[in-house]
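Before relying on records like the one below, remember that each one covers exactly one chain. Contacts with other chains, cofactors or solvent are not represented anywhere in the record.
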Amino acid sequence: MSIAIQSQCTTRHGVGYWAPGLGPLLAAAVALLSLPGSPPYPVDPNAPFDSVETEAVSFILNPATPEPAQPAGNDEQATPLFGMDTVPLLGGDVSEKWNRARVEIARELEAVARCRVNQPCPPAAQKLIDLSSEGAGRSGRAKVGLINRAVDLAIGPTSDEAQWGVADHWSAPFETIRSGRGDCEDYAIVKYAALLEAGIPSDDIKIVILKNAFPAEDHAVLATLVDGEWLILDNRTLTLVRDSDIARAVPELVLDQGGVRRFVSRGRKDRATG
């Protein structure tokens, strides 16, 4: 399955940067459970680069039992994202690109982990640490909001066609950070990595592909669970919006540590699976 993006994916904070014909969304996410200031698994500072990198990729592609998600606020269980069920999306273009993206992102987050143990630190890795540190000393919505703002201001909106000369290019976080430019999925990917580095549980972060009704377009955003409710981080605005307040858009796909899933209306899950 492929997703043709014909959208204002590169719009920023209410200013239109129209980019028709953008290709499949980069929806890369990564199962990296970490606490601020420390990698999610032990890193031997004297270990050879290759062995550390291999361990990182293995951790992402074959994670240990994940930590439980943060409890919902007011002792309430968080509702499903957009109040909808999902079914697995197996095979196809999106799944293949997501699998490749996981390996790239795992390697980059391992570079960040090496920075944490005072090994050589690439500028892009340090920049990702700086972005995630914007929420230091804060919690909940304030923490997420500060990181969201920092990423939005660090990246200039542009299309893959304008930047790379191709209709579709899936950028890993470091590539977007180095260029300082990207489209909607590039923003979402950098935010995903920054929130993980800030200690947000991986179960509480998802990249979502929406189908906007007007204009008709696909658009990538990040969703994160805060105090029992899902907040949508959209590069087109600095405002955090609850999933229940999203209007004129239909959720299509969700990408996270579990893979790619397709949204279905509640009560249609069994039929969709069949």
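The longest strand covers residues 217-226.
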